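Problem: given the chain below (197 residues), write out its structure.
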Amino acid sequence: MGITTGILLFDDAEELDFAGPWEVFTLAARQEQGDRVVTIAREQGAVRCAKGLRVLADHGFGDSPELDVVLVPGGQGTRREVDNPLVIDWLRKTAARCRFVTSVCTGSLLLLGAGLAEGKRITTHWAFLETLRQRGGATVVDGVRYVRDGNLVTAAGVSAGIDMALWLVGQLYDVTHARNVQRLMQYDPAPPYAADV
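Solution.
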């Protein structure tokens, strides 16, 4: 049986938070017999994302497959979903059976809400670091693209999810496999404008 990676979707999820890792994970899975990447929402069907993109979830909570990896994106929807017992309970139960539990951006808020980040080192988008710190329960790390603590891997904002997903491919398969995926994606960032901080 191959590796199954599940990406949690919900209304107002940030598109690149899941689409970047989706690209990485699906390119990695294509090269391995039986590996797959699926999307999961409370109910199978359409999800409206933060910038208006509509995507179709492959599975609802009731029929989601056993996962080896779960990824939780961020976005404004996390502020609502952290108080949704259906989402938090599904995440808690699913994560207990996963080899890796991951998030991008404010997806770490849901990991914390589910008790999965308790006592661990985590990160999030730079604009949400202090808010996450104020919630307590975890050590919030800034100035990094992603943080691993045991089987929990959290990425900073939006594009950092690609870095985290590539690193994870190196752990699930090997570094050569991850480098091949990186090359297939032509992922060699060279932003045209330096950040003015």
